[in-house]
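User:
Hi there, any thoughts?
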Amino acid sequence: MSTYGTMLIPLPLHRAVPALREICAAGYALPAGPGFCLLHPDRFVADNGVLSLAGPLSARLDVPVLAAFQYDGDRLELEVWRAGARSHRYDSWPGRDDDDAPDAPVGADPSAFLDFTAGPVDHHRLASALADTPVEEIDKDVDGEPGYVWAQALHWDVLQALGHPEEFIRRAQWDHCHMHGAPRALSEALNGSGLVTLGAAEPPF
């Protein structure tokens, strides 16, 4: 499965763009419904991944930001940054790359993500997702192992539980390199919504 890094910012796109242009060396920004936008930085540019940019952007924009990095369908990291400092970190599988780390999620505190709500909160779904306990049968491991089959399904459930519409959750699971590689599909998916090209990134269409 695909790796992606995105940032959810609780500001309309037009208000965030000046800071995004200042701080993001290369990437794309998209609207994500009333009051939210998404940043898709080019993570192959040095110091330009979501986990590097979240602090400076939270300080510059004076709002909390939610950085998400999903590894190849296996692991989801979520970091909440406020005023330039990381206030919360979630890791769905700390033991993926560290045999001494636990396999159970760390940072599974639903209250840490409530600043990113876009509608009514499904508290049960949010807590279940962060605990790596899927609510839907389709997301459960086919071999009977605990947890989600894919980390992006966990990410989907977190955002859905926070009230985000499906259209914008799909956008939150795009990656800069995939967007640049499929311009026609991207244009159709955006359906006329604005896209802002940042820094050294080439316009995708």
Notes: Strands lie at 4-9, 26-31, 37-41, 65-71, 75-82, 85-91, 196-199.
